[in-house]
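thread: overnight batch results

M.L. [08:02]
morning all. the overnight job finished for the chain we discussed friday. pasting input first so we're all looking at the same thing
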Amino acid sequence: MTTQVKATFTITRWDETAAEPGEPKLAEVTVGKTFTGPLDGTSTARLLTCTAADGGAGYVASERFTGSLDGRAGTFVLQHGATMSAAGPAFFGHVVPGSATGDLVGLTGTARVEHELITLDYDLG
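M.L. [08:03]
and the structure it wrote out:
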């Protein structure tokens, strides 16, 4: 059975380094977050970002979460990303199969990460 949760997060760290010179701008970013709600804990994400001169943008990330999901303690890794254009945003995200530990072993699911809100549709088998 799939369960959906929504949790808010605060960005606690943003360390950006230019990946290479030129346009569009490419960067590597380490991001720290603190989550509250049914997803309660912290994470560190490694992002690759692209910012185009015409306003287009995109990122891909691998993010390790440590804390609890609906009261179950453990860790898991999300891979997620988005592109932004004049037509609007497009999001994707997945729990990496086999990445969960502790009470979250067996976790599968999809995620949408946007503007300090995560929506996670998950199953624990």
